[in-house]
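MODEL INPUT / OUTPUT PAIR
PAIR INDEX: 1
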Amino acid sequence: MFSSSSATCSSSGEEGGGNLVSSSFPSLKFSSLEGQDVEVAIKALANADAVCFDVDSTVIQEEGIDVLADSLGKGEEVSAWTLKAMEGNTKFEDALAARLDILKPSLSSIEQCLINHPLQLSPGVERLIHSLHERGTHVYLVSGGFRCMINPLAKVLNVPESRVYANHILHEDDPEGSYAGFDADEPTSRDMGKPKALGIIKEKGGYNTMVMVGDGATDAQAKPPADAFVGYGGVVVRDAVRNKACWYVMDFEDMIQVVEHK
């Protein structure tokens, strides 16, 4: 098991990390060995019994709440708050409350949004998650987004709903399912919620090695309890995240190599 004593990986530099990885995985050809401790991240992924994925701009190619906002004609107003949250410039719970207060999404409006604008999986993520399942690794979706938008994705990816940690929008019992707030008790509804969620996952599952994969500042916060943080820049590159990642990748191909390596 690898050390998880700090929120970022100790710096090894791209070149030094590359030499160590090449000696550990001589048969693999990596396109990217950028990160603060690439060897730790790759070894953690190779041995992980649990891998947790952020959803927005990682598993999918957009921010779900921005897709919903666009469908309701409030895209610009909401995307400004999303950017603040992802860059770590405001507390997540403040950004979440502000965006939902702007949108007030009914259940029927969310369902119509998903019909009109199906969320698009990022290239390679379906194969990566399938390969993790094939080798017996448990996969979790840990998101500051909404269960009602993520659960359909989880079904496609064969991730049980019990392994989805996300926010729950509350709705009235009326024909439209009018917006009634959100469950503030969900760990992902507030700042430092992802490390709390991963702590719960790790304790309940008894996992030895856990990896977090994501694009945002809230994902970088999840180490510890994650043993390694893999930053993903395939949709959007965030410098603050890039500088904290143990391993930073622009696509999922190198991760697939590690998982499928015999």
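PAIR INDEX: 2
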Amino acid sequence: MDWSHMPYELLSVDAVLQTVTSMLMDDARKVNQRTNQAMGELRGDNRNSGLPGEHAQERLRLHKDEVNLMEGRVQGFVRAMNDLLDDDEDMTLMNLSRLLTHPERFLQPVSQEILHEESDEPELILEAYLQQALSIVNELDLLKAQIMTTQEQISMTLDSIRNKLLYINTLLSLASLCVATGSFIGSIFGMNLQNPWMDITDTSTWFLRVTWGTAAGMIAMWIILSWIFYRAANTTHTDWGKQKTM
């Protein structure tokens, strides 16, 4: 396209569209930078920043809304450009200089051949900026996909931590059960009631036997229950993985 011979009105349209697309690109670039910074904090890209807190996740949610808002702005611009490109008559009437110098070509009804001829230059300008707007939309779509990936990654990390805490809590519960069982045995021998073992003369030996036997029983009980729980947890995890692959 020969820009030096382009009429003033088309140069004005080009300048306006260039300003609008530049503003949209600058705003989209700023949104991209802020969102990538928030995602980097959540992924732990900066090792010196420490563990991200809830404020980082809240920031990412706010940036996601900002990306959706920015995409809505660009999509509105794209729809306006498409509506204008679909109307050859409107693009033809953008040639104000031709309308003044050759008014006979614009008398109604205007033939399709003249419409195509007169709308060529405006169509080239509009399509050039439409492609720039579509590239911004593609970048925002990619950014939204990255946000979803980051959120899924954080969710998986939190689920893993939650499962580890549940596993530790279960082991502590099993240990408490074993200690409670030993306390039950000790409480039986501590009752102030007559029992056959009261007549035993060598009480020191039996005291050691009962103490060590109870301790060994609690340890054996904890090992057996932990092994059963470990096998059950691994079996459930394996079955769940097979169902996902199917």
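PAIR 2 NOTE: The radius of gyration is 38 Å.
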